[in-house]
Design goal:
mainly alpha, 13 helices
Length: 379
């Protein structure tokens, strides 16, 4: 039964936040097509980080929160009032971020949403005594620190490596779990190599702060690329014949590729261009993974399976095409605006799906298919 009226968008956290993430992903690259801001590079970096990724993170974590609390048998859950306040804080942050100065008022406006999100998550996990979830509850604070460093210093490399680490830690858990659930297997235990790869990536992220050279950071990034690529061989890839899982695997493959290109650019500057690696990580891995995960909330359900619709596939395909076209720049000058236009079109198509979901029946679980034989991963 469909829900109508002003309450419908607030029935679940993923409804408003997945829509906001899609809308902002479609809006941010418009600075390459229209003269909207004085510094399009800085603006689109900042807004894709704090706007798009922030909203997607909120939708995902707040959707996973009830499952954490249910397993613990206790805890506080944010209600519709808290959800409305978080959405208002996100909007306020986007308005504050447009200010050219970085004074106290601007910083407070930018920080309100990630700090508020972490507060809601921390209050819930601490009341439920879920100590292992405390680091993930603090993830929005980490995103804020990375975003502010990006705004104040223009350190795009550290910002992108931080996103890559987040994809490795979260995506490296949910993708094999979803694959295993579809194949009727237990989720594979992560071997030591991916853990070392995550450590290498974390060290590459802090390398600039430690005063290490680009060669050292590049070597660590290459080690991380090898490890993240190797973990794929432990996954039951035969399950990826279904579109919903194929989207996740394709998006994941951009992670080792992007790390490889980034590492080569740091080790051999001038031979491999750094923007190639950074855009493989942002457009391919980040954009693809966010879309593939968010799309699961609006796919048609069958017992043990999710069916991706035409709009899901088209949106994902356009985002992947935009990523590939970005590699043709600067050799082909038209590739930049064309890539931006296709990216915006893909996310606009997904935004229509997310808009329709506001008044559609809520799926349970939100990001997984119904259980069949082996417990499906709970978001």
């Amino acid at each position: 039964m469909r829900a109508f009226g002003p309450v419908a968008p607030w029935r679940a956290p993923h409804l408003p936040f997945f829509l906001l993430a899609a809308l902002w992903a479609a809006v941010a690259p418009l600075v390459w097509l229209l003269p909207l801001v004085a510094d399009p590079v800085a603006w689109h970096r900042q807004e894709l980080m704090l706007g798009m990724v922030g909203a997607a993170m909120a939708g995902y974590l707040l959707s996973a929160l009830p499952h954490w609390i249910k397993r613990a048998g206790r805890g506080w859950r944010p209600g519709q009032r808290a959800l409305r306040l978080l959405v208002l804080a996100w909007v306020a942050g986007r308005i504050a971020a447009q200010g050219g100065e970085t004074d106290g008022i601007v910083l407070a406006g930018i920080a309100a949403f990630p700090l508020g999100l972490s507060f809601c998550l921390l209050r819930s996990v601490l009341s439920a005594r879920l100590w292992s979830r405390v680091p993930i509850a603090l993830a929005p604070v980490g995103l804020l620190i990375v975003g502010l460093r990006l705004r104040l210093t223009g350190d795009g490399l550290s910002a992108v490596l931080a996103l890559a680490l987040l994809i490795a830690l979260v995506g490296g858990r949910i993708v094999p779990a979803f694959l295993a659930a579809r194949a009727g297997l237990l989720p594979p235990s992560p071997p030591i190599l991916p853990r070392l790869a995550d450590l290498a990536l974390a060290l590459a992220l802090i390398a600039p702060l430690a005063g290490w050279t680009g060669q050292e950071a590049g070597a660590l990034t290459l080690i991380a690329a090898a490890g993240q690529g190797a973990r794929i061989w432990c996954w039951p890839l035969r399950a990826a014949r279904q579109a919903d899982l194929a989207m996740l695997v394709i998006a994941w493959c951009w992670l080792p590729l992007g790390l490889l290109l980034t590492g080569l650019a740091l080790v051999t500057p001038g031979i491999v261009l750094l923007p190639a690696g950074l855009h493989a990580l942002t457009m391919g891995a980040m954009g693809g993974m966010i879309l593939a995960v968010m799309a699961r909330a609006s796919m048609r359900r069958l017992p043990g399976a999710l069916l991706a619709g035409t709009a899901h596939k088209a949106a994902f395909g356009l985002v992947m095409l935009a990523t590939l076209l970005r590699f043709a720049y600067p050799a082909w000058s038209a590739a930049l605006p064309l890539s931006a236009a296709i990216w915006c079109l893909g996310w606009a198509a997904f935004a229509l799906v997310a808009l329709r979901a506001l008044w559609s029946p809520l799926p349970h679980p939100i990001l997984s298919a119904a259980r069949v034989s082996v417990a499906a991963p709970q978001d």
